[in-house]
Amino acid sequence: MTPRTVRAWSWVHRWSSLICTVFALLLCLTGLPLVFHDELGPNPRLAEMPADLPPASVDAMIAQAMAARPGHVVPYLFFDRAKPIVKVPTAPSMTTDPAAFHYLVFDTRTGAALDVSQPNQGFMNVMLRLHLDLFAGVPGTLFLGGMGLLLVVAIVSGVVLYGPFTRRIAFGTVRHDGSRRLKWLDLHNLLGIVTLAWFGVVSLTGVINTLAAPIELAWQAGQLVEMAAQAEPAPAPAEGERAQGQRTSVDALLRNVRAAVPGMAITTVAFPGTPFSTASHVAIFLTGDTPITSRILKPALADATTGHVVAVRDMPWYATMLFMSQPLHFGDYGGLPLKIIWALFDVATIVVLISGLYLWWPGRGRAPGDAAARRDRAAAPELVEAGE
Question: How far is the C-alpha of 330 from the C-alpha of 343, rounded, in Å?
Answer without folding.
Answer: 9
